[in-house]
Amino acid sequence: MTEFLQDIAPTTISLVITGLVSLAIGIYLEKFKNRLTFIKYNILFQPLATSNQNEYWGNIEVYYNGLKTNHLNFMTIILENDSNKDYQDIFIDIWVDKNSFIKGQNGFYVDSGKSIPLEKNHYNGLVEVLKQNTENIEKKKEDPTHITPVKLENDIEYFQTNSKFYLPVFNRKSEIKFNILAENDNAQQPNIGIDIKHKGLKLIKENDKYDEDKKLGIGMITYGLIIFVLTTILLSYYFPESLKPIVILGIVGFLNLIFGLFIYRLFQFIKNYLK
Fold first, then answer.
1. Which of 6, 71, 170, 178 allows an S-S link to 184, with CB 3.0 to 4.6 Å?
2. Distances (CA, A) of 252 to 224, 247, 256
3. Mean pLDDT per 10-residue run, the chain (275 residues)?
């Protein structure tokens, strides 16, 4: 019976391990087919001017197109498609907080310099609201008692805090930029948000992706070590004579991991040095 178990156990264990590995590969490939593509983004802030009243500096006033403002900030949003896929018909939503107002915006492809238009319906709505606001100002000049319609006030507030862009195409390994000029009533840096509208795409802050990779690496090492220890205990129980080769194999595998990390860091250093 013992000889029978010794003969069949290795084969059984091999089949179980092979089956588990095949199952894991199948699950991973299925997940790989349906996984999200992450578009990395970063936001750069450049304060332009801030109104201030100070006993030492005196009275500082800032104007934009002849109108007094408390704070102007120039913001640049950078999106990078570092995946291996090209995408079409993408919509980008950009907004600022309720205490800030968008004074101007534009977008362009970094590689070609070609401009990125506002989404058609958003653009048409913006043009119409500007027209209605101009007519409303004229009515106020003619009749000081004239009251601005509530709908027009809401529309103005919406277009002052929201922008929508349309990307006909976003090719792989390409980069786009959006420039937003915003005013803030509280003389503070505006809060800005961004979202992408397309199936299978998700925005992720550039630094966050590296944090996720770091967590993934630590998780792989941790769970791999746990599986190795459990496997070593199990095999040493049934095959005591195999304990020494298993431990040696584990040490060699760990050293290979260390050497692989060292070589990777060396290549990264050389690559960055030669840029």
1. 71
2. 14, 9, 6
3. 48 55 56 68 89 72 82 93 89 94 93 93 95 92 90 94 95 93 89 91 74 65 74 73 71 70 72 57
